[in-house]
Design goal:
With about 450 residues, the protein is α/β, with parallel strands linked by helices. About 40% of the residues lie in helices and about 20% in strands. Bound molecules: flavin-adenine dinucleotide.
């Protein structure tokens, strides 16, 4: 039984505590009251799982090549303006991360760069094979120090509260208690859709709720059938999240073999093409996996660059320094999402979307490896900057509209709660199906 409603107020409510949501919060001013919610704990986001690294514009000479690699991987369906923004902002973002205490691998006193599939040059910064954890834990620690941010765990957004295409906040559920959060601005930073699939590298609670809610409220989506399958995850017959064998393993020289012990593909092909080749080989071999050989990397590289992969595989019974491991493609990343412009605004007023849940066009039809953490940070920061700018503009133009808005908010929140209470038994399933149906519809229409 869901209990009666509570009310809260915020200047900004952020749905999601991954890299995109945290970075947005860090760029909002301290005079703004911010509420951040997350479905489970603050450590359980895909941002913590990122292994390979984060791209950066190495030097001015790398600009054209970085742009070409991103566009080529995206089948030239990327929005060039967004790619340009991401590349141009990258060095500044990395400097900020270092300022928060993030440690990247160094060589001879300089940042060290690695390479992954489809990158024509090494331009990826990394921290062992746990780059996401290194970045996100430092951002989280910085957010926790902010007096104006309230972090709410085990709190699920079940609806947005809107009137005439203007977002006024969200409806949440926590321990069977409904809560309506009024917010001048709402940022959806709710990650990907891996939880909709049986085999995925994502956390299972990432089920595309923000997309389902957007669909219900007529918020524009884009390219939602563009889903990236990662070519190499550790094969397992167990249920649950698949363990990723990072692309940088192949970038550093690991090789793929079929059942006959022969190589069948160039290991650094774009993810979608390599996935196709692996599926073809699996079909030919009549096996649910192909083999990946990391032994050639040598113990030194494996222990220093890939200690987490080494440990996890060892726990699953494979010593990657000595033997091949079975790998299989799995759902990994979502290029499409809630359509946003270059400052992360959706088609609904006062509603922003950032990170994997959004589509700002950076990735086109296929993401270039290690561009997503960067894209999440760059466009999370831009959402914050736009909120500040809009707030300044509105303060100059209008006075006292807030109280009127808040009165009406209660009515709207009650309507949203009514809908939730009526449908709550089927709502989660309904949300999941609506996203999967829309993906299928878009795929067929293409
Ligand atoms: C195994 C793995 C390895 C990866 N490696 C790399 C890499 O090397 N480099 C790279 O650039 N990218 C990598 N990625 C991709 C990258 O990690 C993600 O795209 C990025 O971190 C997404 O960040 P985000 O903030 O958008 O979402 P997330 O970090 O996934 O956070 C989503 C948040 O939304 C919350 N949420 C969702 N729905 C609701 C709801 N209804 N109510 C409340 N909260 C909700 C979740 O609880 C969570 O806090 C990897 C991904 C995976 C899974």
């Amino acid at each position: 039984m869901v209990r009666m409603m509570e009310y809260q107020n915020a200047d900004v409510v952020i749905v999601g505590t991954g890299a995109s949501g945290l970075f947005a919060a860090l760029h909002l001013p301290e005079y703004m009251n911010i509420i951040m919610i997350t479905k489970t704990t603050v450590e359980e986001s895909d941002s913590f799982l990122a292994q390979g690294g984060i791209c950066v514009l190495k030097d001015e000479e790398d600009y054209e090549s970085f742009m070409d690699d991103t566009m080529k991987a995206g089948h030239y369906e990327n929005r060039k303006e967004s790619v340009d923004i991401m590349i141009r902002s990258s060095r500044g973002v990395i400097e900020e991360l270092i300022g928060y205490g993030v440690r990247f691998a160094m060589k001879n006193g300089h940042l060290d760069y690695t390479r992954e599939g489809c990158h024509s040059k090494p331009r990826i910064l990394f921290h062992e094979d746990i780059t996401g954890k290194e970045i996100t834990s430092h951002l989280l620690a910085a957010v926790k120090k902010l007096p104006n941010v309230t972090l709410m765990e085990h709190t699920t957004m079940v609806d947005i509260i809107e009137e005439e295409n203007r977002c006024k906040g969200i409806l949440t559920v926590r321990e069977n208690q409904l809560c309506a959060i009024y917010a001048k601005n709402t940022i959806l930073a709710s990650g990907g859709i891996g939880g909709l699939y049986e085999h995925s590298t994502n956390y299972a609670h990432l089920t595309g709720d923000a997309l389902a809610i957007s669909l219900r409220h007529g918020v524009q989506l884009e390219n939602i059938d563009y889903i990236q399958i990662h070519p190499t995850t550790l094969f397992s017959t167990k249920k649950g999240r698949r363990f990723l064998i990072s692309e940088s393993v192949r970038g550093e020289g690991a090789k793929l073999y079929g059942a006959d012990g022969k190589r069948f593909a160039n290991e650094v092909l774009p993810r979608d093409i390599l996935t196709k080749k692996i599926h073809e080989q699996m079909e030919k071999d009549q096996k649910p996996y192909v083999w990946l050989d990391m032994t050639g990397l040598g113990k030194d590289v494996i222990f220093h660059h890939f200690p987490h992969i080494y440990e996890t595989c060892l726990n699953e019974g494979y010593d990657v320094t000595k033997e091949w491991i079975p790998v299989v493609p799995a759902q990994h990343y979502f290029m499409g999402g809630i359509h946003v412009d270059s400052v992360s605004k959706t088609s609904m007023e006062h509603l922003y979307a950032v990170g994997e849940t959004s589509c700002n066009g950076v990735h086109g039809a296929n993401r270039l490896a290690s561009n997503s953490l960067l894209e999440s940070l760059v466009f999370g920061k831009r959402a914050a900057a736009d909120i500040i700018q809009e707030e300044t503009r509105q303060n100059q133009n209008s006075k006292n509209s807030l109280d009127i808005e808040k009165d009406n908010f209660k009515n709207l929140a009650e309507q949203a709660a009514l809908y939730y209470n009526k449908n709550k038994n089927d709502l989660i399933q309904e949300y999941k199906m609506s996203v999967l149906d829309e993906i299928e519809r878009e795929r067929k229409a293409r």
